[in-house]
Amino acid sequence: MLTSELLERIRRLEIRTRRRVQTLLAGEYHSAFKGQGMDFAEVREYVPGDEVRSLDWNVSARMDAPFVKVFQEERELNVLLAVDVSASGRFGSAGKCKRDWMAELGAVLAFSAIRNRDKVGLLLFSDRVERHVPPAKGSRHGLRLIRDLLAHEPEGRGTDLALALQHLQRTQKKRAIIFLISDFQAPLEARGLRALGRRHDLVALCIQDRLEEELPPLGLLHLEDLETGRRRWLDAGDPAVRAHWRAHWQGRCQTLDQTLRAAAVDQVRLSAGEDPGRPLEQFFLRRSHRT
Questions:
Q1: Closest Cα to residue 262, out of 176, 204, 179?
Q2: 255: closest CA among 186, 158, 200?
Q3: HSE (CB half, 13 Å, CA atoms) of 71?
Q4: Tens of pLDDT along 77-86?
Q5: pLDDT, position 72
Q6: Domains of the chain, with CATH numbers?
Q7: String of b and e for 122-154 (b: at least 16 CB within 10 Å)?
Q8: Measured distance between the N- and C-terminal CA atoms of the chain, rounded to whole angstroms
Q9: What is the pTM of this model?
């Protein structure tokens, strides 16, 4: 059921993302990803310079003149948003939690796909598969995905990225562009990424919060791991503790970068509180120059 509060949240989110979507569509979204193949369009008379291999011999024999087959790129894409809804997404220091920023990023991509007449689907995962909506077209379908992004209450607290990748490998038969949206707090193996990437175009979108990178000098802090429930005290006033925190964060980022690079998976890193339109537009631009 769509409550009035949820409808208002969807409306506000669509208004906020409208300009970003228009910018992406006017920019490089169309050319960043290739179509699924070539579709037959028509038969026309041969003109000098046409590829001889395109001749339609049956039509040419009937018409007693050379005719060629004309093909065009199939532009309709299958887009799937795989969004991490584990408990670590409830953390946030930029006015909203990371999961809210993930939902906003997902909305930008979903509305972009819808307005480009592409099919778009959704996978919500934690330490289990929470919800899977296969790709489809249309604004009503898109609004359903946005509703799920905003309103779904996850059953699991942890993160199992390997399980999500295996589920997509098993269920997504038709080639798709898969945006894996997560804070990547859990370990990630290149093997599962490579297996999925052989069949699909996989892009990792990493959402990070500034407090995860740099611990402020706030004195004694009582911290809780939102996924495991473990708690500990930490002296944030100690420069050595803050240096260790920063080094641990940089090491984890380096490991993620190496894993994604080994699996040949593109990565876009976004900070919570940052407008997602700009980094997405830059990424699409780089992709369009590469394809």
A1: 204
A2: 186
A3: 11
A4: 899 999 999 9
A5: 52
A6: 4-31+76-290 (3.40.50.410), 37-74 (no CATH)
A7: bbbbbbebbebbbbeeeeebbbbbbbbbbebeb
A8: 42
A9: 0.82
